[in-house]
Write a structure and sequence with these properties.
The chain has 223 residues and is an alpha+beta fold. The protein has a domain of 151 residues: Nuclear Transport Factor 2, Chain: A, CATH 3.10.450.240. Helix content is 40%, strand content 26%. It has six helices and five strands. Strands 1, 2, 3, 4 and 5 form a five-stranded antiparallel beta sheet that branches.
């Protein structure tokens, strides 16, 4: 047998060996490889992708409630009743609005003019605020105040009357501000313009759920 024929046989054997090894490494379509997707399967896949990523399971906890009060508590039951009376009501939305109302009302009170926020005050609260403001005027005192930020807003208590649909929500605020009190001559009698003061307030807001007027009214200050 010539050397050329021997070389061809050796090369053929090497080629056969490489083909078998390649097949063992790559495997066949009998393994985990996905089969070709038919037209119907592709349509079904598109429908699956179009479904929401998360589905709401009926009967599960309402995180808009349980993120703020204990599940099953009287506060949670009161909030659930508010939502039943007014489906568009959201606890998180309310607390965001309460933060803004707190800054606006407190700022007006410190400046000594609550005329622009009177619609958000219960008559008794407005009268109490006016009494303090008038007392300052009689003593010749003025207050310079700047709210630097409301650091914490916490829902403290919730009550709801299902018959009258009257709702009350008590909120605790933690604010940082500067306060300076000056006498009639402009001298500082209290506070420091460079000192940041932390102030805690507990306010109660009330509203009739489902009413046309969406505004909550401040009905009490303090615990």
């Amino acid at each position: 047998m010539s050397s050329a024929v021997i070389q061809l046989l050796v090369l053929a054997g090497i080629a056969l060996f490489l083909i078998l090894r390649l097949k063992n490494v790559l495997g066949t379509r009998d393994g985990f490889e996905k089969p070709p997707v038919s037209g119907d399967d592709r349509a079904g896949a598109r429908q699956v992708r179009q479904r929401p990523e998360f589905e709401v399971i009926e009967g599960g906890p309402d995180h808009d409630i349980v993120d703020h009060v204990a599940d099953g508590s009287d506060d949670a039951k009161a909030l659930a009743g508010m939502k039943m009376a007014e489906p568009g009501f959201g606890v998180g939305d309310f607390l965001g609005g309460a933060r803004g109302a707190y800054e606006m009302i407190l700022g007006a009170f410190e400046k000594g003019d609550i005329s622009e926020v009177r619609d958000f005050l219960d008559p008794d609260v407005a009268e109490a605020f006016e009494g303090v403001i008038e007392q300052r005027r009689e003593q010749g005192l003025t207050v310079e105040s700047e709210i630097l930020g409301v650091r914490d807003v916490e829902l403290y208590k919730a009550t709801f009357d299902r018959e009258t649909r009257h709702a009350e929500l008590t909120v605790r605020f933690l604010a940082e501000l500067t306060v300076v009190v000056r006498d009639a001559e402009g001298k500082i009698v209290e506070g420091d313009p460079n000192e940041i003061k932390r102030q805690r307030d507990t306010w109660t807001f009330a509203r009739t759920m489902g009413a046309d007027d969406p505004n909550w009214v401040l009905v009490a200050t303090g615990d």
